[in-house]
Write a structure and sequence with these properties.
Layout lengths: L12 H18 L34 H11 L2 H4 L6 H5 L18 H13 L8 H5 L1
Amino acid sequence: MAARSGEREPPDPVRQNQLLCERVRKELRCQRLHTQYDVNPLHRVHTITKKPMSWHDNIEEPADAKFLNLIHHAALEPTKKYAEPQTESQEIGWNTTPLVSRVLKDSALCKIQRGSAHHTERYSRKKIIRDKHRKQE
C-alpha cells in the first residue's frame, strides 16, 4: 500500500504485466473483424444523390436487381420475411387472420343493423323490397 503522505510505490513489473495481459484479453474478446458489409434495413433510401451539375453522373444506369430486392425485402413486415416469429414479442401478433370469418353483409348478426333496417322500412316513403321473390311480383 502506498503511504498517505502522497508518495507512491515504484511500479511493480509483474502487476503491470498482469494488467496489460488482462486488457489485451478483453480487447481480443470484444474485437470482431467485419468483412461482409450490408445495407442498413432501417434506412429506406434506394439511391445516393449525385452531383446535379455533372453530366456523367446524370446518365441513367440500369438498376441493380439484387440491390433493389435487398431493399424491398428489408422493408417487408416480419410475417412476409420469415416463416416463424424471430422474437417472443413477435409471437403475440404473428397470426392476424381471424379464426372465424365474419359475414359483414348479414344484418341478422348485428343488432344495430337490424334496428336501422326496421327504422328505414318504417319511415321511408318507398317500401324497401328485401326479398328477390317480392321483386318479381
